[in-house]
Amino acid sequence: MQELVHFLFEAGYLKNVDRSGWWLLGNKDPESVAEHSFRCTILGYILAKLEKVDTSKVVMMCLFHDLHEARTNDLHKVAQKYINLEEAGDKATQDQLEPLKGPVGDEITDVLSELTNQESKESIVAKDADILECAMQAREYQVQGYDGAADWLDRANDRLKCESSKKLLAILKQSDPNEWWKKLKDKK
Fold it and tell me: How many other CB atoms sit within 10 Å of the CB of residue 173?
């Protein structure tokens, strides 16, 4: 049980790891990896339902997909040109899950391996959720004045594979991220 507690504290550390790609836009206070993973998991659930695949598997993939970043940090694409993040991430995840051998660690290991291999429909949906969450964040930053975030939105188009994801992207690119609360203010 002590290993589980250590693991949970380490997972909580992701609240302190900034998503570094947004620094390239001049955003000094981007969302954390934990915040990204939270919305990615919600998106994964919704996309799994829309694509009619195993929801629990997609949710697990989304929930744990960036766990390694508690040890490796979040490295933006420019830094990844010089560091093999996939190899480092795999090693970090192995080390993180080693103390949890058994039902918990083995299940997380299996689902992350499936995500990496990108051979199942669930892994494709989970990857789309990750990309789509980044696109949503880009749209939010774009509206906040970080015009360079449009590049993230444009790149998402070519990376998405599921029809549901592509439809959501087309809508979110034209949407005001603040519209949901503005409409609520007008209601009495």
Answer: 17
Q: Which residues pair with 18 in a beta bridge?
A: 32
Number of domains in the chain: 1
Reading the block at residue 95, the tokens are 């080390």
Q: From 42, 54, 39, 59, select the one nearest 108 (Cα to Cα).
A: 59
Range of the domain at 48: 2-186
Token pair belonging to 39: 């919305």
Q: Is the pTM of this model over 0.90?
A: yes
Cα-based angle 109, 110, 112 (whole degrees, multiple of 5) = 65
Give the CATH number for residue 132: 1.10.3210.10
How confident is the model over 86-104, as pLDDT tens digits? 888 889 999 999 999 899 9
Amino acid at site 113: S
Structure tokens at 118: 């990108």
